[in-house]
């Protein structure tokens, strides 16, 4: 599967933190951009 992901986040989001936790748990390396 995917080993690396680029995630772009714009503004506050209700599901954002939960999604980020799920992604981290899955072991994917993140390049995270918060705008």
UniProtKB/TrEMBL annotation:
In its UniProt record, a GO molecular function of this protein is: structural constituent of ribosome
Query: InterPro entries this protein is in?
Result: Ribosomal_uS11, Ribosomal_uS11_sf
Source species, domain of life: Eukaryota
Gene Ontology biological process terms from the UniProt entry: translation
UniProtKB keywords: Ribonucleoprotein, Ribosomal protein
- Quote the cellular component terms of the Gene Ontology held in the record: ribonucleoprotein complex; ribosome
Name assigned to this protein: Uncharacterized protein
Question: Which family is annotated?
Answer: Belongs to the universal ribosomal protein uS11 family.
């Amino acid at each position: 599967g995917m080993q690396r992901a680029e995630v772009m986040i714009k503004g506050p989001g209700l599901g954002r933190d939960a999604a980020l936790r799920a992604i981290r748990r899955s072991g994917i390396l993140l390049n995270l951009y918060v705008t």
